[in-house]
Design a protein that fits this description.
By secondary structure, the chain is mainly alpha-helical. The chain has 6 helices and no strands.
């Protein structure tokens, strides 16, 4: 930005180029604040201080959301693995109950339906947990 301004490029254009090179939201906020400051005037240090406060609070919120969603992800993994664990335990205690699922056509249908429902549940849980900030 400094080199571009030294070469005669306007400040808004130099800031726009910086945002095009690094297209992240924080750079865009910085760009907007400096453009408004240049046009309207005022206390630059106060505007940059407010921007830093906003950016810090956004980072804190992002970390809090990450912590809360990781708890939900762990719960989803536990809930998702329970049917398989129960099936394994039933097989270890009384294999005849589980072998019916693998040896009959009705058992295959039940396994297929259970797999589809588990897949749908995993998809729904994942879409509820993963969201953009």
């Amino acid at each position: 930005v400094v080199d571009a301004i030294a070469m005669g490029v306007d400040v808004p254009q130099a800031l726009d180029r910086m945002y095009q090179r690094t297209p992240i939201q924080e750079v865009n906020f910085f760009n907007i604040v400096l453009n408004i400051q240049q046009k309207a005037g005022g206390n630059l240090s106060e505007a940059l201080g407010n921007l830093s406060t906003v950016l810090r609070s956004r980072k804190l919120l992002r970390e809090k959301i990450k912590a809360l969603s990781s708890e939900a992800k762990a719960s989803a993994m536990i809930i998702g693995s329970l049917p398989i664990i129960v099936m394994l335990l039933v097989y270890l205690t009384t294999p005849a109950y589980i072998m019916t699922l693998f040896t009959t056509d009705l058992g295959h249908l039940i396994l297929l339906i259970a797999g589809v429902l588990m897949g749908m549940g995993i998809y729904i849980m994942r879409s509820m947990i993963n969201f953009a900030i």
